[in-house]
């Protein structure tokens, strides 16, 4: 059985949380060349002024516990900044539903980004898309303007979604492996 890995922040995109490495809100993302403990590229982190890293780590711990209680193979990443859930490729949809339910119950609600933080998040997302094009050798659609992306709360364009579409339409036999490897190299900014 093929297995997929779903990596989830405390909550998704603008509806969710973000984290910095110092525990204090900051509108400055980490360097795109930063790495995780295991040596993989780190996500650019845009921390809303309204939340601390401790809040985020606690929420992620509770989300992982909730997912495990529902029978999923869930762990908190080494930095405490995200939750990794492993599932069979045919289980993606039910797994996402369970994790979203856990996020609603245990996630950090009401994150408010400043305008500068939203612009930084948009710019980091665009860099993620450029990274994905390079690593997966695909062409993604152009991102919308920052204004359109922010107005849509990030829903107007997602490099991760666009990567999946590009790989599926490109007839890539190793689509899941390519997608997972590219996402590891080009993590979603938070």
Structural key phrases:
190 residues, 43% helix, three-stranded antiparallel β-sheet, single chain, 6 helices, globular, mainly alpha, 8% strand
What is the general shape?
A: globular
Main β-sheet, in a few words? 3 strands, antiparallel
Q: How big is the Rg?
A: 16 Å
Order of helices and strands: EHEEHHHHH
Would you spell out the secondary-structure blueprint of this structure?
Layout: E1 3-8, H1 53-69, E2 73-76, E3 83-88, H2 92-106, H3 115-136, H4 146-151, H5 159-169, H6 175-185
Helix pairs in contact: 1-2, 3-5, 3-6, 5-6
Report on the architecture of this protein.
It is built from 6 helices and 3 strands. With 190 residues, the chain is mostly helical. It has one domain (3-185). Strands 1-3-2 form a 3-stranded antiparallel beta sheet. The chain is globular. The protein starts with a strand and ends in a 5-residue tail after the last helix. The model is unreliable at 10-33 (pLDDT under 50).
Brief digest:
It is built from six helices and three strands. It has helices spanning 53-69, 92-106, 115-136, 146-151, 159-169, 175-185, and strands spanning 3-8, 73-76, 83-88. It has a three-stranded antiparallel β-sheet.
């Amino acid at each position: 059985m093929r297995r997929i890995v779903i990596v989830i922040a405390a909550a998704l995109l603008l509806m969710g949380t973000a984290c910095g490495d110092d525990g204090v809100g900051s509108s400055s993302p980490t360097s795109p060349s930063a790495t995780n403990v295991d040596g993989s590229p780190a996500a650019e982190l845009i921390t809303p002024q309204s939340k601390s890293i401790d809040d985020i780590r606690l929420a992620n711990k509770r989300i992982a516990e909730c997912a495990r209680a529902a029978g999923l193979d869930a762990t908190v990443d080494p930095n405490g900044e995200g939750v990794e859930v492993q599932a069979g490729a045919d289980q993606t949809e039910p797994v996402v539903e369970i994790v979203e339910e856990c996020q609603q119950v245990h996630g950090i609600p009401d994150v408010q980004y400043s305008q500068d933080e939203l612009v930084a998040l948009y710019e980091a997302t665009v860099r993620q898309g450029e990274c994905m094009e390079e690593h997966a050798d695909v062409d993604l659609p152009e991102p919308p303007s920052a204004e359109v992306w922010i107005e849509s709360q990030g829903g107007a364009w997602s490099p991760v979604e666009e990567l999946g579409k590009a790989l599926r339409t490109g007839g890539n036999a190793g689509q899941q492996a390519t997608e997972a490897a590219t996402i590891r190299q080009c993590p979603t900014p938070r």
